[in-house]
Write a structure and sequence with these properties.
Elements: E1 3-5, E2 16-18, H1 28-34, E3 38-41, E4 47-49, H2 53-58, H3 62-72, E5 78-82, E6 90-94, H4 100-103, H5 109-113, H6 123-136, H7 142-154, H8 159-172, E7 179-183, E8 186-187, E9 195-196, E10 199-203, E11 212-218, H9 227-234, H10 271-285, H11 291-304, E12 311-313, H12 317-320, H13 333-339, H14 351-366, H15 374-381
Antiparallel strand pairs: 1-2, 2-3, 3-4, 4-6, 5-6, 7-10, 8-9, 10-11, 11-12
Helix pairs in contact: 1-3, 3-7, 6-7, 10-11, 10-14, 11-15, 13-14, 14-15
Length: 386
């Protein structure tokens, strides 16, 4: 990552230059927000970011970019703020200055990024800001996720306890009824084990087993639906190719980037589409399609998720670790990333993609000695999870 940051960034000079050959290492949201990939300060000293029609059409906002930049450690002690004087303008604003005495007390970079003095959790302030955000717009969670990231950066060891406190206080005051904020970390790029911070809003859902909720909104970026996946749905006989499971996923129906999916709660894969999806997933996973393997997959999915593609476990060890089991086959993000096939690997809540990854994981873990199909047969025959 190569950014030259002039220390006179708020004093009227050309302060921010992004070298094009390193642009790919920055978040997409930030690049869209930059537009021309450079910023200049005006006569009033504000450092304005050029924005483009593309940014406006995609709906990428400053909250999304700030969330990504804070997570990556870019632009320390600066944040992107909408410019009320320009319809599509933004400027860089210095975050709250840190007292010299506080800086001398070995304050971490994460605490600086979170704008919190050393030794203080900042929980009351974060709580109040989240409440103010929800009062203003109860259906846009991107700024809520940004506030949580600041709090997490300041005191990561206490974050889970503080998040629990935030949920309790919000419910006590009537915010987010039947909803809950959870950690939803996901596998990092280029690594099977590295995790990137993520968050989700999950909802109570009568169709789910106790302790399981449905993803309603996520901080994850809107994923790309590949042509390969689109064609797989298009070739289905069910509804003459007009069924697309992607559109049932929270991410595929408006729930990504802090938006909300109104279709997620109460949603499930139609009964008429299930056999075809199982057969496609078995074929793509390299497992024989037989009545026994079809029945095994159906039994696993019915037990794990009830065919709700957006279901998420909120109580087990994976959930407590911040990477909950989710989707039809209840895979954790790292498992999905490892076993998903190319073209079916961008959306953990897409029904077909999750089926493929779950089947391949079961075969790899439980069927290495019994031949194709033995893994899912073994999982189906045993009680509990896998």
């Amino acid at each position: 990552m190569s950014i030259r940051d002039n220390s006179q960034s708020l004093h009227g000079k050309d302060v921010q230059h992004l070298e094009g050959e390193h642009a790919s290492s920055l978040p997409v949201s930030f690049l869209h927000l930059l537009g021309e990939r450079k910023t200049q300060a005006g006569e009033d000293g504000r450092v304005r970011l050029s924005s483009s029609d593309t940014q406006a059409k995609l709906g990428l906002d400053s909250s999304r970019a700030n969330f990504d930049l804070q997570r990556m450690g870019v632009l320390p002690r600066l944040e992107i703020v909408p410019d009320s004087h320009r319809k599509e303008g933004f400027f860089l604003k210095a975050q709250e200055k840190v007292d010299p005495a506080a800086r001398a007390s070995e304050q971490t970079g994460a605490e600086l990024a979170g704008k919190l003095p050393a030794g203080k959790s900042g929980l009351p302030e974060t709580q109040q800001r989240i409440e103010d955000i929800l009062k203003k717009n109860p259906h846009d969670f991107s700024q809520v996720f940004s506030e949580l990231e600041r709090l997490r950066g300041a005191h990561p060891k206490d974050f889970r306890q503080e998040l629990e406190s935030i949920n309790k206080e919000l419910h006590k005051k009537g915010f987010l009824p039947h909803l809950r904020i959870i950690e939803d970390d996901y596998a990092g790029k280029g690594s099977r084990t590295g995790a990137e911070h993520g968050y989700a809003i999950v909802a109570d859902d009568k169709q789910n087993p106790p302790g399981n909720r449905t993803v309603y909104s996520t901080s994850h970026h809107s994923p790309h639906e590949s042509e390969r996946l689109r064609q797989s749905y298009h070739h289905m006989r069910y509804r003459h190719g007009h069924y697309n499971g992607w559109e049932q996923s929270a991410e595929g129906s408006g729930g990504s980037d802090g938006g909300l999916s109104r279709q997620a709660i109460g949603g499930h894969v139609p009964v008429g589409a299930r056999k075809e999806l199982i057969d496609m997933a078995l074929k793509l996973a390299g497992v024989p399609i037989t009545p026994a393997t079809e029945a095994a997959v159906n039994k696993i999915v019915t037990r794990e998720s009830g065919w709700n593609p957006n279901i998420t476990n909120t109580w087990d060890s994976n959930a407590r670790a911040g990477h909950p089991s989710t989707g039809l086959m209840q895979t954790i993000p790292g498992t999905f990333k490892r076993f998903a096939l190319h073209g079916y690997d961008s959306n953990i809540h897409d029904p077909l993609s999750n089926l493929i990854a779950g089947i391949r994981y079961a075969e790899h873990t439980y069927g290495s000695r019994g031949g194709p199909g033995s893994g899912i047969l073994r999982v189906a025959s045993r009680p509990g999870g896998y």
